[in-house]
Design brief:
The chain has 474 residues and is an alpha+beta fold. The protein folds into three domains: 238 residues, 3-Layer(aba) Sandwich (D-Maltodextrin-Binding Protein, domain 2); 94 residues, Periplasmic binding protein-like II (D-Maltodextrin-Binding Protein, domain 2), CATH 3.40.190; 104 residues, no CATH class. The chain has 19 helices and 18 strands. The chain has a six-stranded mixed sheet with strand order 2-1-3-10-4-11. A five-stranded mixed sheet has the order 7-6-8-5-9, sandwiched between helices. A hairpin with a 6-residue loop joins strand 14 and strand 15. Helix 11 packs across helix 12 and helix 17 crosses helix 19. This is NitT/TauT family transport system substrate-binding protein. Keywords: Signal.
Amino acid sequence: MNLRTPFAAVTLAAAVLVSAAQAETIRVAIGTQDTTINTATGGLLIRELNLLEKYLPHDGRYQAATYDIQWKNFTSGAPITNEQLAGKLDFGVMADFPGSLNGLAHLKAGKKSLFIAVLSGSVNGSGNGIVVPANSPIQSLSELKGKTISVPFASTSHGMLLRAVQAQGWDTENDVKIITQAPEVAGPSLKADQIDAHADFVPFAELFPWRGFARKIYDGSQAKVPTFHGVLVDASYAEKYPEVVIAYLRAAIEADQLIGREPEKYSELIGKITGVDAEVDYLFHGPLGLQTRDLTWKPEYRQAVATAIGTLKLLKKADTSLDVDTFVDDRFIRAAFKASGLDYEAALNNYEQLPLKANDASTGQQINDPKRVAEIWVEGEPRVRYYASPENAFLALKSIEGEGKAVRVFYAQDRDSGIKLLGNQAWFVRSDSGVVSAFLLKEKAESWAKANGGKVLDFVGVRAALVASNQGDQ
């Protein structure tokens, strides 16, 4: 620059440069997994409700900035990672297992990604599951030795399956035949009895049974290995635009709050967009759901990342190490909580299921025992009805149908694990005194009956027994 240039001209030139910087068009490209319905608060709901636009900054360095918001939907995490590596995505939503692959792939490419928030998960492992064809005689994982099990390779359910097989004391190469199948292939294979079992991530271990051609015989909570879905961001993007990252997470926080207040309404929206039935969406997003929506980095979720990396090394899918302490970065979610007026530490220390604060729809009494809860979603009603016990719910079911109303779905909570179940898929124990308990697995129901007394019944059987007993008491 010429030293004799007038000061006013220098000032004007500087102003032009600042204006040009402020007028930058900032891309916000987000890779979602809409059909992986537990990620809805990090993708689908933000997009459909235009929540991101609400929080993107327009002050300071962003005063004149414009935003190019791009949404791209995928069915699994691997293609999201590929798009990130190609520079086509800034954010990606995926589970612990593919998320760890994402971090390793970035390192291999001389780049870095950050795992910045959890969206939904289970510290006990619920969310992944194993199903068998509806007419299969198999009732538990222990009966799958020597059988063919399909799974989407490199998915979080793949990691769950490998750990579950090893926990049986089996060799993953010789005692079972594990083949790769995406959900869209596994569904027809189950219908045609071409495979003995299929392991999958959210929502297919529930969706396939709901649609009538499979039965769930294993839930990830039996392995007691934490699992979650969360959000990753390109590290250089986060360094350049930290306020944009925080804005995205604030949108995710609001999406979480909205579905928490009206789970039925937003389960319907998720169903409309994804084709995954609202009754299955509610299994995850309703109170006492299969997983808990949780945006905080609990130690168990950090451990899930470490476990995934260890499993990848065991499978020889990774030849480098990934430092979990730098890969998992909670700075942005903490800042988002603060900006939203929320207490991150309180949320971090909260391990409760999504709470249910309600009264029994039949008796009006407060519901206190979450493992005894049953629910009925009546056709045409915007809210699910809650009951303090399966007994109350079954008797209400008879009355509802007697009024000519159709029931969409009956839910029960597993007495052992506390996870939400599709009632018509569950096993029940009716004690000698008439108390009913629900279970995912027949063997768990039999064990409970042996220890506590009672008879093991399926949905039809327990319903008939309760109705007959009630008529006898009248």
